[in-house]
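Q: I'm building a small set of examples for a reading group on sequence design. Run inverse folding on the following structure and report the sequence directly after it, with nothing in between.
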């Protein structure tokens, strides 16, 4: 496999160059000479003389016919804005559209909505998405690697909607300052997508195969400017914040701490495609709290990045590598440790070369712990993080990337900074494969870490190859990670192993009857094998599954899995940080049956159910039941609750010279959430998490008022309790105001 995969990559590289797939879909845009009022009415003179994008194709449940409920899109522009309008025709049945709420960054699959997809660089790889649902909620995001969207990105633009009996209308004004583009390119890529859950339809202007993402940039049409896009003007945005708050640590019984703080960010366009981001004393108190999950694995969980400073061109940094092999993971920086400042330059140097350069400085934390042996206070040193990425496009859509990372501890002292390292560096190169038709994707990468007191075996190499024609999903992966490979600013679950995985091999049987409720059903095989550095098999997972997807987007899946593990370290099978651990080298074999069901998201009442039962580590038994129930009083209130119950029984823990200790454990994770959207600018979210496994109950309640585009006032209340007694651990209240100022 080590020799075969590079040959496949080489072959695909030479077959990846081809003409743009949807070259025949062309939209010619002309400038407007009259004012446009963004009100959702379309009575402005400018809309009467534009080209019209119409005759949309169905994308789901089939891609072979035109959409029954059509959409008409018009675009024009002036020196400052790109204007977009869409008329979304619908059934005149008196039913309201499907919308979750008026909150920003809605879920596309659960809303009646319209999206604009722009690909300004003609690289079929990087772009933007702007969307509005039928209740007026906005969505914006970045698209990378040809189809992966990051909807946590936030920027400044405006829109209005109007809902009528047989149609709904949206108008959008997107400032050119919000976009990144090259001034000398007179054609862009463009597409329009429409979700209509009530009629079980997803439609697109430029045709996209049913099995691919509706964000596929490989299938964009051609956006032709009558003259080149407006030359970029001075583009500087300053985003200061002020906040006040109070914190109280009840466990340490300390006095309340009052917060009075300020800081901010700045965005400076070095060119129309290259941006400088600056941050000073950033505060992330308003960022959505992570949704807790029950962790029964032996490894750390992965949570996505949501902080705005890290999101511009985030794919350059965070997408380097594979899912569980990331040399850089921005959440390693500044969570629990205050950031003093940060600077980032990212974007395009020319049509084919992208750059990302980041430097971040964190503060010194005086006391982390006390070492009783040396009688010294352990402190966390001030640390500097540097990341440099270059990405060169080759062939039609593929690229080669080079990354260098450096983590440096300033004024490092081995005694005072026990547990920390003086430095950690990483150097990596990857080839990112993306065929012209988006059916072949993959990566090949090599990386080396540099750390104090290491002697070799600090390399990592990995390959991934995915093929997605109409009926097949074939996803294969190989990894080889040295025992001393250590990316301290990255995310890896383990080191010192070889791995081969069939992440998924599925065959999709699509329905031929348009009246059939089943869209497809698919048998699936999954296989995952690990060997340690001595060549011993440590993990072997084989699973067979069958899944059914309906035209209303409900999903049913059954799975039977065969497991083998030879532990490479001690492991607490309850993951409750107890002293009852299974020993290094112990072997465990068991089987598990899993059933999953996702209801249709178009219903006001939604449900997700997952249940698994079978064996477990230490000859034990495991029952894991999880459900998420939701109901929306659309578009104002969305109520949901996740309930997870785990029952672990009859685990045999060896005890030297004595009979095995039998361990039983059970715990709940309950997390209700209430979203109230008074308008599409005023939101209130309350999230409660009761986690028996981690012995914590958390409440996070946040009010957000978007009083101007991209400018907000937040009121955030958070506290933590000990379950059972509800003894309070800590509590905080923060009032924060941000203002987006364009200079």
């Amino acid at each position: 496999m080590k020799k075969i995969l590079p040959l496949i990559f080489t072959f695909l590289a030479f077959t990846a160059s081809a003409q743009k797939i949807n070259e025949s879909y062309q939209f010619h845009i002309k400038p407007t000479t009259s004012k446009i009022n963004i009100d959702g009415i379309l009575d402005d003179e400018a809309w009467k003389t534009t080209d019209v994008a119409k005759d949309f194709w169905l994308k789901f449940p089939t891609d072979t016919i035109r959409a029954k409920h059509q959409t008409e899109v018009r675009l024009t522009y002036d020196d400052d804005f790109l204007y977009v309008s869409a008329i979304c025709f619908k059934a005149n049945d008196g039913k309201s559209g499907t919308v979750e709420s008026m909150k920003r960054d809605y879920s596309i699959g659960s809303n009646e909505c319209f999206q604009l997809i722009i690909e300004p660089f003609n690289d079929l790889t990087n772009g933007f998405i702007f969307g509005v649902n039928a209740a007026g909620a906005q969505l914006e995001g970045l698209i990378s690697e040809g189809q992966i969207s990051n909807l946590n990105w936030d920027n400044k633009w405006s829109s209005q909607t109007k809902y009528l009996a047989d149609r709904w209308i949206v108008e959008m004004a997107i400032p050119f300052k919000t976009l990144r583009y090259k001034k000398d390119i007179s054609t862009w890529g463009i597409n329009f997508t429409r979700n209509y859950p009530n009629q079980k339809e997803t439609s697109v202007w430029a045709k996209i195969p049913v099995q691919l993402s509706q964000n596929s940039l490989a299938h964009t049409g051609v956006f032709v400017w009558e003259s080149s896009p407006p030359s970029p003007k001075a583009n500087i945005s300053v985003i200061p914040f002020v906040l006040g708050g109070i914190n109280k640590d009840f466990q340490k019984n300390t006095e309340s701490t009052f917060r009075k703080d300020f800081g901010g960010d700045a965005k400076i366009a070095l060119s129309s495609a290259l941006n400088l981001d600056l941050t000073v004393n950033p505060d992330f108190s308003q960022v959505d709290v992570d949704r807790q999950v029950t962790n029964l694995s032996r490894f750390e969980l992965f949570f996505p990045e949501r902080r705005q400073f890290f999101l511009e061109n985030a794919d350059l940094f965070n997408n380097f590598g594979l899912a569980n092999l990331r040399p850089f993971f921005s959440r390693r920086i500044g969570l629990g440790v205050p950031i003093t400042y940060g600077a980032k330059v990212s974007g395009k140097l020319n049509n084919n070369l992208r750059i990302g350069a980041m430097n971040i400085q964190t503060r010194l934390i005086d006391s982390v712990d006390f070492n009783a042996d040396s009688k010294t206070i352990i402190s966390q040193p001030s640390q500097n993080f540097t990341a440099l990425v270059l990405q060169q496009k080759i062939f039609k859509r593929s690229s080669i990337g080079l990354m260098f990372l450096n983590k440096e501890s300033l004024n490092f002292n081995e005694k005072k900074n026990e547990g920390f390292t003086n430095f950690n560096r990483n150097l990596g190169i990857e080839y990112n494969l993306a065929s012209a038709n988006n059916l072949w994707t993959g990566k090949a990468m090599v990386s080396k870490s540099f750390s104090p007191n290491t002697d070799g075996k600090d390399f990592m190499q990995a390959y991934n190859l995915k093929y997605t024609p109409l009926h097949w999903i074939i996803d294969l992966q190989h990894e080889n990670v040295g025992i001393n490979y250590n990316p301290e600013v990255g995310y890896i679950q383990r080191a010192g192993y070889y791995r081969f995985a069939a992440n998924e091999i599925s065959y999709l049987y699509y329905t031929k009857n348009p009246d059939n409720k089943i869209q497809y059903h698919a048998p699936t095989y999954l296989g995952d094998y690990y060997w340690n550095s001595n060549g011993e098999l440590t993990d072997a997972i084989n699973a067979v599954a069958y899944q059914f997807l309906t035209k209303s987007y409900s999903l049913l899946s059954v799975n039977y899995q065969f497991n083998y593990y030879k532990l490479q370290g001690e492991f607490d099978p309850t993951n409750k940080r107890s002293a009852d651990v299974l020993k290094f080298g112990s072997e465990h074999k068991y089987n598990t049956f899993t059933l999953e069901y996702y209801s249709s998201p178009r219903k006001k009442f939604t449900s997700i159910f997952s249940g698994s039962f079978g064996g477990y580590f230490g000859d034990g038994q495991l029952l894991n039941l999880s459900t998420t129930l939701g109901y929306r009083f659309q578009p104002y209130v969305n109520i949901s609750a996740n309930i997870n119950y785990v029952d672990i029984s009859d685990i045999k823990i060896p005890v030297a010279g004595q009979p095995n200790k039998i361990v039983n454990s059970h715990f709940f994770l309950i997390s209700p959430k209430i979203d109230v959207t008074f308008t599409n600018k005023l939101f209130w979210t309350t999230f409660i998490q009761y986690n028996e496994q981690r012995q914590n109950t958390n409440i996070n309640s946040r009010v957000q008022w978007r009083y101007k585009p991209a400018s907000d006032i937040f009121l955030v209340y958070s506290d933590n309790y000990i379950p059972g007694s509800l003894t309070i651990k800590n509590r905080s209240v923060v009032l924060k105001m941000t203002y987006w100022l364009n200079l």
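The chain is about 0% helix and 55% strand.
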